[in-house]
């Protein structure tokens, strides 16, 4: 069985696709607060926003358009720290 099929099978059962991944943690800050933090670091227009588990913790991730580039900012959902600050090629999905 390939990994894609495994993830689909686990999701259909309501099980986490990543072994050891806990249930979605309740953030200690709102997305609006995290958005303000991200826009302070990288002014622009938010193209995409999500709450996700990445890099060992729960965070808000924002793709912010700045002219022709996309600035990705990750904000720790528990303490507001910037955990990612990088540029992406427009149209790139990670």
Question: Secondary-structure map with pairings?
Answer:
Blueprint lengths: L2 H10 L18 H11 L3 E10 L2 E10 L2 E8 L5 E7 L6
Antiparallel strand pairs: 1-2, 2-3, 3-4
Q: Low-confidence parts, pLDDT < 50 over ≥5 residues?
A: 1-17
Residue-averaged pLDDT: 82
Q: What do we call the CATH topology?
A: Nuclear Transport Factor 2, Chain: A
CATH class call? Alpha Beta
Structure description:
It is built from two helices and four strands. Helix content is 22%, strand content 37%. The longest helix has 11 residues, at 31-41. It has one domain (27-94): Nuclear Transport Factor 2, Chain: A (Roll), CATH 3.10.450.40. Strands 1-2-3-4 form a four-stranded antiparallel sheet, with helices on one face.
Question: In a few lines, what is going on in this structure?
Answer:
This protein has two helices and four strands. With 94 residues, it is α+β, with helices and mostly antiparallel strands.
